[in-house]
C-alpha cells in the first residue's frame, strides 16, 4: 500500500480511537461509519442497514473481544487497497466512510 493510502488509514484509525488508548471499539466504528454513500445503497441493490451490518461483521476478526486492533484495521484496508485503482479514489473512499473531511 502506498504511503499516502497508509496515511489515510492511520487518520481514520486515530479518529476512531476516541480515548487515545491505541485501540478502537466496535461501538466507536458503529458511531462513525456512514453506509449511505455505499455504491450498493446508492444503486438500490441493498438497504443501508444491510451494508452496515455486513461491514460491522468484517471487524474483530483475530480475537472476538469488541476491540479492533491496528493490525485488524490496517489489514482490512491493505486488502481493499488492492482493488482501488488510484490513490485519489482510495482517499475518497476513506473520507466518505469515516467522515475524514469533518
Question: How would you summarize this macromolecular structure in one to three sentences?
Answer:
With 102 residues, this protein is mainly alpha-helical. It is built from six helices and two strands, in the order αβαααβαα.
Explained architecture:
Helix 1 (3-16) crosses helix 5 (70-81) and helix 1 runs parallel beside helix 6. Helix content is 58%, strand content 4%. With 102 residues, the protein is mainly alpha-helical. The model has no long low-confidence stretch (mean pLDDT 86). The chain contains 6 helices and 2 strands. It has a two-stranded antiparallel sheet with strand order 1-2. The longest helix is centred in the first third of the chain and has 14 residues, at 3-16.
Walk me through the topology.
Elements: H1 3-16, E1 24-25, H2 26-32, H3 39-42, H4 48-57, E2 67-68, H5 70-81, H6 87-98
Helix pairs in contact: 1-5, 1-6
Keywords, please?
102 residues, mainly alpha, two-stranded antiparallel sheet, 6 helices, 4% strand, globular
Provide a count of the helices. Answer: 6
Portion in beta strands = under 5%
Radius of gyration: 13 Å
Low-confidence stretches: none
Structural class: mainly alpha
- The end-to-end span amounts to 24 Å
Helix content: 55-70%
DSSP E strands, number: 2
Mean pLDDT: 86
Q: Largest beta sheet, briefly?
A: 2 strands, antiparallel
Q: How would you write the strand order of the largest sheet? A: 1-2
Order of helices and strands: HEHHHEHH
What is the global morphology? Answer: globular
Amino acid at each position: 500500500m502506498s504511503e499516502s493510502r497508509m496515511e489515510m488509514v492511520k487518520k481514520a484509525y486515530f479518529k476512531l480511537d476516541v480515548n487515545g488508548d491505541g485501540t478502537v471499539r466496535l461501538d466507536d466504528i458503529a458511531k462513525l461509519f456512514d453506509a449511505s454513500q455505499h455504491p450498493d445503497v446508492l444503486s438500490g441493490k441493498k438497504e443501508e442497514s444491510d451494508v452496515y451490518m455486513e461491514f460491522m461483521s468484517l471487524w474483530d476478526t483475530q480475537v472476538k473481544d469488541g476491540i479492533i486492533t491496528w493490525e485488524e484495521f490496517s489489514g482490512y484496508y491493505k486488502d481493499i487497497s488492492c482493488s482501488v485503482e488510484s490513490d485519489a479514489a482510495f482517499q475518497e473512499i476513506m473520507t466518505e466512510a469515516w467522515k475524514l473531511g469533518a
